[in-house]
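Weekly modeling sync, notes
Attendees: S.R. (lead), two postdocs, one rotation student

Agenda item 3: backlog of single-chain predictions. S.R. asked that every request posted to the team notebook include the full sequence so nobody has to chase files. The rotation student volunteered to paste the first one in as an example of the format we agreed on. Action items at the bottom.

Example entry:
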Amino acid sequence: MATGEKQFIPVRIAVLTVSDTRGLDQDRSGQTLVDRLSAAGHVLADRKILRDERDQIAAQLRAWCADPGVDVVISTGGTGLTGRDVTVEAHRDVYEKEIDAFGTVFTIVSMKKIGTSAVQSRATGGVANGTYLFALPGSTGACKDAWDQILVHQLDYRHAPCNFVEILPRLDEHQRRK
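Predicted structure, as returned to the notebook:
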């Protein structure tokens, strides 16, 4: 390795599937994320399935944000427009800062695959308590696109010109200041 080259730093990722109907054995989207994060060299910190209940989702997100063993949370499901789709609202209940461009970039990636149907997604990203949070649609295709086109790069310390991992230690610096 040449001097100055960065080495890969694995991050600890929790995966949450939001569904009123799926169990672990039918959770293809969650499994897609687990397979991809593991193949990339990251660590699966935890995995859960919850019903589309805003308070329960927000409580789980907060619990993972409080856990020093979790750096990133990726949820799948509940980002659509129907009355039961409350994952985005739960995420925003927890965010300290929203990563506005995440949804925009996800829409651009989705447009290439599904055209104007991408307008129906409310994928979002944010930061809370030093933890990254991302809400993805429930389709396996959307999870693949988000991981393969955005997250695999931004969660890789070697990615230039910048990435989420290099600023991870500074996400909660405001809490350390006196």
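Discussion: group reviewed the output briefly. The radius of gyration is 16 Å.
Action items: rotation student to repeat for the remaining queue; S.R. to check formatting next week.
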